[in-house]
Specification:
Layout (H helix, E strand, L loop, with lengths): L7 H18 L1 H4 L9 E7 L5 E7 L7 H10 L13 H13 L5 E6 L4 H9 L15 E5 L5 H11 L3 E5 L4 E5 L4 E2 L1
Parallel strand pairs: 1-3, 5-7
Antiparallel strand pairs: 1-2, 3-4, 4-6, 5-6
Helix pairs in contact: 4-6
């Protein structure tokens, strides 16, 4: 059988398909390939309000559900002022990836999501060591714990993902995630 030469377009398509397959298997690149991410489902408990939410916010093709994102924005609002902000889907995905490291479907206890400038200022005045320009103010950070999972294990899982910032606050009982650059404290 005679093999026909591959056109430039055919070669590019085959190359892209091969690269997609290889990259989606690599742990660093898998975060960037929607099909390689776990299902976008979270169960949350707001520690301050007692509200619970179980929501599928991203479909298997990587598309976000606007109504589910609004529900996440609400439960992750500033509990001090009730101010709601758009939470960055990347930090939500980061939280989801950490949850899946422990089997998924855990009820995640939210300590802090979005923080209003007023609340952030109050925490600073109380000496809580919060950043003046915290990513919480931009909806790009979440402080949380997974009941039944040691904080050191949660921290290690988040660090290994290298998806954004990871702060460790064992005396306060939570781990901080953000969608900024990868850094540890």
């Amino acid at each position: 059988m005679t093999q026909l030469p591959l056109s430039r377009r055919g070669f590019l398509i085959a190359s892209m398909a091969g690269a997609y397959t290889l990259l989606s298997q690599h742990p660093v690149w898998a975060k960037l390939v929607p099909d390689a991410r776990p299902t976008g489902k979270l169960s949350l408990l707001n520690a301050h309000t007692g509200e619970r939410l179980t929501v599928t916010y991203r479909d298997p093709t990587g598309g976000y559900d606007p109504e589910a994102l609004q529900a996440l924005n609400w439960i992750l609002r500033c509990h001090y002022t009730n101010q709601v902000a758009a939470i960055d889907p990347h930090v939500i995905d980061y939280l989801n990836l950490v949850d899946h490291r422990f089997g998924g479907n855990n009820e995640i206890q939210i300590i802090s999501g979005f923080r209003s400038p007023e609340y952030n200022r109050l925490l600073r005045e109380e000496g809580r060591h919060v950043a003046r320009h915290s990513l919480h103010l931009q909806g790009k950070a979440i402080d949380f714990a997974i009941p039944g999972v040691e904080l050191t294990k949660v921290r290690r899982a988040a660090m290994n993902l290298r998806f954004g910032g990871v702060g460790f606050y064992p005396s306060r009982g939570f781990v901080h995630l953000d969608s900024g650059r990868f850094r540890l404290w």
